[in-house]
Amino acid sequence: MPQENIILPIAGMTCASCAMTIENALKKTDGVISANVNVATEKATVEYDSEKVSLDKIKEAINNTGYTVDEE
Ligand code: 9UX
Prior knowledge:
By secondary structure, this protein is an alpha+beta fold. It has one domain: Alpha-Beta Plaits. It is 32% helix and 35% strand. The protein has two helices and four strands. The protein has helices at residues 16-28, 55-64, and strands spanning 3-11, 32-38, 43-49, 68-69. A hairpin with a 4-residue loop joins β2 and β3 (43-49). It is globular and about 35 Å long. The mean pLDDT is 96. Residues 14-15, 17-18 line the site of dioxo(di-mu-sulfide)dimolybdenum.
C-alpha cells in the first residue's frame, strides 16, 4: 500500500481541544493511517494511503471541522 506523509499548516487552532477535534476527524477518515495535530506548531502531520484517500479529501475533512488549511 502506498503510504504518503504530509504536514499541513492549520489556521485558527488556539487550544489543545481544537487539535483533538481535527485529529479525531482525520483518524475517522478512510485511508488515513495516522494523524497528529500539534497546537503549538499549528501543523497536522498525516500519514495516509494514497490509493484510498486523496489530499483533497484530507483537506475536506479538516474544513468540515471548521478549520482551514493554510495555502503553502
Ligand atoms: Mo479551544 Mo478551539 O476552547 O476552536 S476548542 S479554542
